[in-house]
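LOG
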Amino acid sequence: MITKGVKELCTEAEEIIETLTVQEVMKVRDDPNVELVDIRDIRELWRDGAIPGAWHVPRGMLEFWIDPQSPYAKERFQSGKKFIIFCAGGLRSALAGRAAHEMGLRPVAHMRGGFGAWKQAGFPVETVEKK
């Protein structure tokens, strides 16, 4: 029996991690101490595009790439930068941000509304070609 649903988990996550609007993210996206992390599936990037300069980190690999002891660790996560995680609509990123926070990654935030809200706001989007 499920005792806690996705909405409740996301609400709890937003109580733990910083939640930014797309407007707030737009203001800091060029800051060299900020890293935008796109956790959408690669097929979503191919279909919908991406935020220019965002780093694609598949959701299924996030914890493995963060953990410096993992064979999949990415040194980029040890940079001390602020990581702003986003997905398509803001739910996966809330959960991913909480997981990253619980692992000790600091500072970490997520973007409310995700890529959909970014695109709707008319902010820059680039095409992602299949490799």
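LOG (cont.) second protein
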Amino acid sequence: MPDIISFVMTVYNTRIEWIERAVNSIINQTNKNWELIIVDDGSKEDIAQFCDDMSERSDQIKVYHQDNAGVCVARNYGTDHAAGRWITYID
């Protein structure tokens, strides 16, 4: 398996358009060796559902939900679940 890049994106009641734009920017890049980890940090139900819907677009997108604990906790949670050799954060 080639080295992959893990993108960790934290979401807390983020506008749906911004989430979709960020996800599309990762999906449409030329490098296909990636995973996207979306950590929903206790968003409202419609935002959480939208994140789940985004994960259905690709097996490379994983969504985790947690009670609101703040961006640092959410990033650490995403980092702990990352499989990539390299990790970067999408804010």
